[in-house]
Amino acid sequence: MRKTLFGLLAATGLAFATSASAQDIVIAVAGPMTGSNATVGEQFRRGAEMAVADLNAQGGVLGRKLRLEIGDDACDPKQAVAVANQLASKKVVFVAGHYCSGSSIPASEVYAEEGILQISPGSTNPVLTERGAKFKNVFRVCGRDDQQGVIGADFVMEKFKGKVVAIVHDKSQYGKGLADFAKARLNDKGVKEVMYEGVNVGDKDFSALISRMKQAKVEAVYFGGYHTEAGLIARQAKDQSLNIALIGGDALFNNEFGAIAGPASDTGYVTFDADPRQNPIAQQIVAKFKAQGHDPEGYTLYTYAAIQIFAQAAAQKKSIKLNDLIAAMQSTKFSTMLGEISFDAKGDVTSPAYRVYNWKGGKFEYAM
Amino acid sequence: MEYFLQQTINGITLGAVYGLIAIGYTMVYGIVGMINFAHGEIYMIGAFVAVIVFTLLGMMGVTWVPAAVLIVLVTSMLFTAAYGWAVERIAYRPLRGSFRLAPLISAIGMSIFLQNYVQLLQGARVKSIQPVVTGAIPLIETGHFQVAVTYIQILIIVLTVLLMIGFSLLITRTRFGRAQRACEQDQTMAALLGIDVDRTISMTFMIGAILAAVAGVMVTLYYGVVDFFIGFQAGLKAFAAAVLGGIGSLPGAMLGGFLIGLVEAYWSAYFSIEYKDIATFSILILVLIFRPTGLLGRPDVEKV
């Protein structure tokens, strides 16, 4: 008897506590909120918070408010799986995440099993969407490394024609994958690199690598990896008075790369999708971010767009069931902060638009 | 040949930093017989203080580099000395005389605590500063390869060598050094002869922390980048250096530091950079198989 009474009490208590939010739709943003890629995690979080606030201000999704959970994977694959499980236990219906491909891919296994829609704002490794029907729930709003690696390699061959090229990667799923796509393209076109080396994520000393490049008379480096190591390599090359151009992928596209590389960053080139901050449609949001004192750089607006897409898909089918969402995603042209977006059957965007940027005077400018 | 020389310079610079941190490990082990796993974190705090003070000085308009470096060094030493003292007082002294593993566990806890403390206080992002000391001196210039040593590399090497000399003198020639060595040999006997053992141990922790602060400041100048996690990796390498040289032996720690720095540089120079850590630790294991007490360590003599 006492047990039932207690249970009853607990049940009513719980009902009271959650009655305000039981109607909410729970979604999540997941990425590296801590660790050396925390700057990108912050972009994710800000983009997601702004999107949720804007949608709620317009009355939410299907008349229900959105509630945002934040997951921190620190770009660690093990932690990513733990975070994914945690989010699943919170009955999340949609995750905008993760960032590092090495985190997104293992986490997507959990989302696939639990029937959660995943849209990655920034994981570019092709494997993410190449694993067949079990992973119908996985989408991304960015391009792929087999696209940007080719564009980066073509840029190297055009801009640094006949120069000595080295390829360096950070051994991560993203970094090595990207470097290998660039290498394949270069080798196909008859350019052979003098050096192909892997470095450790978290290392600070690259002096031995730089001396080795100096010995090999390297003039251009294609780097597959994240901004911290790229910035350090550029900076230490300058210290050893080795003038190299550093060409990298989307992970270098943030202001912290410039801060770490210091004056050496002017020879940094980066492939990234078209910068959404310049879209006419995004101007109002950009101004709103700037009013709060933040530059919506890198993947901020990509995260915003991922949540917009979820909201539009749900509104279209009047449902937040996974199968309805997937059906909507595969058939609709969404209008987002990134412009018009539609997805192919794998879950990739149909028209990725990689551009090459150069870091000049404190910001990235189109180089090509 | 020129290339070899350049890699030697790189390796010695790296080794100097490892050596400075390794001294802290070895000294503490010598006097209290425990591994102070929080020592890497003290080094990390030294580097953070350096970044903060450099930024402040930049804002205040102190642009004369030698003055700025000196101010940063002194501030960083004061802070880390305070941390070194507090860590010993809070986490280790209450456990002295407890079973052997207790302070070790406490040290690991302290290390995790300090890492998270800095992460919460300073944020998880990488902190960077603009280059402070720039420029290099070309040593040998052949058509093929130019050997250059940067000012900051010179600063690191010179400062390390000076500190090591000064430090050896401190241990061998001064009253404190005598007390320190006495405590190493027999704390009860040292106490009976009027040495304040607690104070000597506290001082040892503070000196180790001060040397780690120097390493932290130098690394900040050298790489310009600091995050809350650097203490772990550097600490691990420095600990390996201390063990390689023979834990408890001061010249051993310095030798071990330089050796590990050089092995890393040479391996990266002639073999695959990917495997440099594997190479370093393989050598450590090999040395320990053939000389379990490290290169310069004295074997524990079992008294019957």
Would you mind describing this structure in some detail?
The complex is a heterodimer of chains A (368) and B (304). Chain A is an alpha/beta fold. Chain A folds into two domains: 2-142 and 279-341, Response regulator (Rossmann fold, 3-Layer(aba) Sandwich); 146-274 and 354-366, Response regulator (Rossmann fold, 3-Layer(aba) Sandwich). Chain A contains twelve helices and 14 strands. In chain A, α5 (145-159) packs across α6, α8 (227-239) runs parallel beside α9 and α11 crosses α12. The model of chain A is unreliable at 5-20 (pLDDT under 50). Chain B is mainly alpha-helical and 304 residues long. Chain B contains eleven helices and four strands. Chain B has helices at 2-32, 39-60, 65-92, 101-122, 151-173, 175-185, 187-192, 197-223, 230-245, 250-270, 276-290, and strands spanning 127-128, 136-141, 146-150, 225-226. In chain B, the strands form two sheets. Chain B has a two-stranded antiparallel ribbon with strand order 1-4. The chains are: A alpha/beta (368), B mainly alpha (304).
